[in-house]
Design a protein that fits this description.
With 240 residues, the protein is α/β, with parallel strands linked by helices. It has helices at 13-24, 36-41, 57-71, 94-122, 143-163, 189-202, 209-221; strands spanning 4-8, 29-33, 47-51, 74-79, 126-130, 169-175, 230-233. The model has no long low-confidence stretch (mean pLDDT 98). Bound molecules: NADPH dihydro-nicotinamide-adenine-dinucleotide phosphate. The site of NADPH dihydro-nicotinamide-adenine-dinucleotide phosphate has 28 residues, from helix 1.
């Protein structure tokens, strides 16, 4: 059997598409999300589905331990779980800031800490962290989301430097706008309407979660001696 792949946020969007893509290629999976029923509905072979909130470090570690007992060491961790609550600093509820920081940044750190020591010992393994084009450039009404994704860029590149001597890869992928559930959690209808109007105007929207999934799988399946450190990927029509 192939090596164990751990995917967070596998109940929708990119995570769901990656679960299917890696499963099709024969990888055993640990799938993590809060809506475990959506993970189970995919009915993928050799897939352990766990209801875990990535903010809960102990539960996250425990799920990985359980999956490793079943399928062997985790060779790929994809920190994909994330939320985007767009808003303006002047008016946005600070609880929304906290939620984004906790899920996007702390959740990613929790996952990294759960696997990196063993990867170092084995001198093998890959961590893929989901950044965003909002992690390399700014967008209006994205201040705190940008803060979390710029944070992912910084912590990922630091970890890459630290793990490079151990032959462990840290990659970050920075997608542009792709149609998933992501925007739906933003609480301002005006911001959501403006975002959708921008998609309409520009014609951005042909790129799919499956395109992202294939890209991550391609990067992972490059030889361990090759690290695609940073991947920026967007709809061709996205000019920002
Ligand atoms: P979706 O909203 O479709 O999926 C997000 C996933 O994260 C869901 O499976 C959700 O599962 C999970 N999730 C959210 N909070 C938690 C939590 N606390 N614990 C565990 N799982 C959680 O969004 P996308 O697929 O679009 O986003 C995936 C990643 O890609 C995110 O990090 C996002 O920031 C990033 N990204 C997305 C872009 C886009 O345009 N779509 C562009 C650039 C980056 P559940 O609710 O069941 O827990």
């Amino acid at each position: 059997m192939k090596n164990l792949v751990v995917i967070t946020g596998a109940s929708s969007g990119f995570g769901k598409a990656m679960a299917k893509e890696f499963s099709k290629a024969g990888y055993p999976l640990l799938l993590i999300a809060r809506r475990v029923e959506l993970l189970e509905q995919m009915n993928l072979p050799n897939a352990l589905c766990k209801k875990v909130d990535v903010r809960d470090k102990e539960a996250f570690q425990q799920a990985i331990k359980e999956a490793e007992e079943k399928y062997g060491p985790a060779d790929l961790l994809i920190n994909n779980a994330g939320i985007m609550l767009l808003g303006n600093i002047e008016t946005q509820d600070s609880q929304e800031w906290q939620n984004m920081l906790d899920v996007n940044v702390m959740g990613t750190l929790n996952g990294m800490q759960a696997v990196m020591n063993e990867m170092k010992k084995r001198q093998h393994g890959t961590i893929v962290n989901f950044s965003s084009l909002a992690g390399v450039k700014t967008f209006v009404n994205h201040a705190v989301y940008c803060a979390t994704k710029f944070g992912i860029e910084g912590l990922s590149e630091t970890a890459r430097e630290e793990l490079a001597p151990y032959n462990v890869r840290v990659m970050r992928i920075a997608p542009g706008a792709v149609n998933t559930e992501l925007l739906s959690h933003t609480t301002s209808d005006k911001i959501k309407d403006n975002y959708n109007a921008w998609l309409e105007e520009t014609g951005v929207g042909k790129i799919t979660p499956e395109d992202i999934a294939r890209t991550v799988k391609f990067a992972y399946e490059m030889p361990q001696s090759v690290n695609l450190r940073e991947i920026q990927i967007s709809d061709t029509r996205q000019d920002s």
